[in-house]
Design goal:
197 residues, alpha+beta, Arc Repressor Mutant, subunit A, 2 domains, 3-stranded antiparallel sheet, 12 helices, 52% helix
Length: 197
């Protein structure tokens, strides 16, 4: 996020926390709450969540006696990655790729809900993956890794076919992904995932 956009896109509490961290660079949670004068725990947590979602603030360390996080500016932790400009379409595609690589399947609205993107942006990212052949669209809003299309569908949960996106939403994406990961690949290569994969 550009500094000029912070005033319009960040809440007042988030801007207070950011101002303190820009002056002090890193602080423990309790000190940061006191210095920023955001004393309400819920408002403070919401403001920190907002700053983390914008990749402005990240936890740098955890102290266990007493337990606290040490917060710092993301630019200090990831200077190369955060100073390089990235095309928005490319960023949406890569966010969708990371999510789909982990989940294997996404249903309508899931990527938007998990990442905080709008549904339109999530759809743009998923459709870019379809264009490059990384994913297939099973139904409007439902996407699956292209490599999973080649798998045998016999190990899916009862009542769920590989092309039935409505069933995927009913059973849930985790059950479908788990079932897909536990079956064998069609063809000469066959394997199953273990807990170490």
């Amino acid at each position: 996020m550009r500094r000029s956009a912070e005033r319009s896109r960040l809440s007042r509490d988030a801007r207070r926390i950011l101002r303190v961290l820009r002056h002090e660079w890193e602080m423990a949670t309790s000190d940061l709450r006191a210095e920023s004068k955001v004393t309400d725990r819920r408002a403070f947590t919401r403001a920190l969540d907002e700053l983390q979602a914008a990749m402005l603030v990240v936890p740098a360390d955890v102290v266990y006696q007493p337990f606290t996080y040490i917060w710092t500016l993301a630019i200090g932790r990831f200077p190369d990655a955060l100073t390089r400009r990235v095309n928005r379409q490319l960023a949406l595609r890569e966010i969708a790729r990371c999510f789909l690589a982990g989940a294997g399947l996404t249903v309508r609205g899931e990527l938007a809900r998990v990442t905080g993107l709008s549904r339109v942006e999530a759809g743009l990212g998923n459709r870019a993956l379809v264009r490059e052949g990384y994913a297939v669209m099973k139904a409007p809003g439902a996407y699956m890794l292209a490599e999973l299309e080649r798998w045998d569908r016999t190990a899916l949960p009862d009542g769920l076919s590989g092309t039935d996106a409505a069933s995927a939403e009913t059973v849930g994406p985790r059950a479908v992904t788990s079932a897909i990961r536990n079956r064998k690949m069609v063809g000469s290569k066959s394997w199953t995932l273990t807990s170490n994969d």
